[in-house]
Amino acid sequence: MDAADAAAASPAAPHQPPYQYTASQGYEQTEEVPRELLRQQADAPLPVDGDDDDLEDIFDDDDQIDDDEEWAADGDLTKSYNRQRQATDAGAAVPRSNAQKPKANTFASVDDQVSALSKHAVKIRLDSVKQDDDRDKDKADRATSEQVLDQRTRMILLQMINRGVVSEVHGAISTGKEANVYGAVSHDDETGVATQRAIKVYKTAILVFKDRERYITGEHRFKGGFDKGNSRKMVKLWAEKEYRNLRRIYNAGIPCPEPLALKLHVLVMGFLGDRKGWAYPRLRDANLKGDDVDQQWQNLYVQLLGTMRRMYQICRLVHADLSEYNILYHNGKLYIIDVSQSVEPDHPRSLEFLRMDIKNVGDFFRRKGVDTLPDRAIFNFITVPAGPVEEPAMGEAIAKLYETRQAATNEEEAAAEEVDTEVFRNQYIPQTLEQVYDIEKDVKRLGLGEGNELVYSKLLADQVVAAPNGGEKNKVDEEESEDESGEGASLGGDDDESGDDESRFDKGRPRGRKFEDKDEKKLHKQAVKEAKREKRQEKIPKHLKKKLVSSTSRKTKK
Ligand SMILES: Nc1ncnc2c1ncn2[C@@H]1O[C@H](COP(=O)(O)OP(=O)(O)OP(=O)(O)O)[C@@H](O)[C@H]1O
Ligand SMILES: [Mg+2]
Questions:
Q1: 8 Å CB contact between 324 and 317
Q2: Which atom of ligand 1 is nearest the CA belonging to 179?
Q3: Phi, psi dihedrals of residue 316, rounded to the nearest 5°
Q4: Same structural domain for residues 208 and 289?
Q5: Which residues does a 6 A CB cutoff place in the pocket of ligand 1?
Q6: Which residue has the higher pLDDT, 445 or 126?
Q7: Containing H/E element for 543?
Q8: Which Pfam families match (predicted)?
Q9: How much is the average pLDDT of 376-395?
């Protein structure tokens, strides 16, 4: 063994990448592929049955949200297309025109594609973990053992590399119950400039997702519901939801990762961190510096309230898992992440989730010594349509809230405020107009001019009774629904199953006080019931629908 060999064999030897990156030419292998990776490549050929190693849907582009957007990682479709062409020329891809995909050919072509992609295997380098040790020691330790990729995920990543969405995949930034987030780098072909990316890979283990149902039930974008028995399909929906929600939030100008590409349960997004690949800290771990730290915390609090209002009013979203863990901090700015569970205001439990978000945020900032506003005041601030949705006006509106707030001058009043917050937190929030009407005493209170006492008073006054902006939806919302209808179907695919939606905020009809008269209310209720019954009769029974769908499905089952 000569000196060079000995040096290379040493565990302390500097790590040399086994390939070289040349601008405009991509990678060239300069070294033998490590044995570990070779083994993974050898594992690549497909097992026959539809277990977790079934790769067919990975090479099936038909079910993507939006082909163009999905792969236009750098906004450069030509590059991606050329790369794809190269792969195709090498005999890798199935001819796209062959919609029927005869069975035998499908297997052969998947095999071909797998082996064509395996040339990129060296660009998945999970050993290069970027984790801050003092941030979460436990997590860092787990990272190495838990970041192992399953075969399907590996294939998706290789495919993404092949298409130029990213150039290299690195180790996990975070490993969690539901998802791992990996660092990645994208090299610009022309300039050679490297841009950091983040890749969120959802785990397909079924148990983890058991409590996710509450976010989906009642979400019109998941009308088709989700199939609890099919975890793969579920995580795909989940990733898709995060992608769409991110897109809304990003388009509204709220700091968050830019959604870049999506394939099944793998989501590529902009990296929130420095150019070397160190992610920004979570708000929980933010280490504010300077002699005005208290003021900085106060400003962050106000900033976050504004963000929540913007999310609600412009993106039509309630985060639903907002806390110091799902916000990243950098340079005085808060970045919203982890939005797969976010719901629209018409979700039956959206206001409950919003109330929970408000509580979490308040609890955290109070621990930081911030003088926070009462939950009820924030709830109203976020949900009232009237008022500014832009800074600095939103900040000013919050300053007003502080000014007008009944200063708790003595202990008694402070205690009363606390009680009020407690009452608010436990108060029943009606989510549908029918629920509002069913509560006779609420109607009475309204009649007595005590409407302000109702937790949903602002919603009642501004959103339900008089539909905002004459019933029109706001801009981003419209864009979103356009793009959603442009994609053919809502998530879950069952577009026409709108019967159950009737009871939620119906923005089109004048409602509310108009029906305060008891008889009129009764008549109206009957009419609604009747209409629903009729609709139910027209509905194709679920089992028939399923049959219909599967018989017309393009996908050839094995
Ligand atoms: N775009 C990004 N840029 C940089 N870091 C990110 C990005 N997205 C996520 N992270 C890091 O990964 C961590 C986990 O991300 P996220 O909160 O989205 O996953 P999660 O759904 O909470 O996963 P789990 O619940 O399984 O822990 C974040 O706390 C953050 O540190
Ligand atoms: Mg999280």
A1: no
A2: 26
A3: 55, 50
A4: no
A5: 173-174, 176-179, 181, 198, 200, 257, 269, 271-273, 279, 282, 326, 337-338
A6: 126
A7: helix 542-552
A8: RIO1 (PF01163)
A9: 95
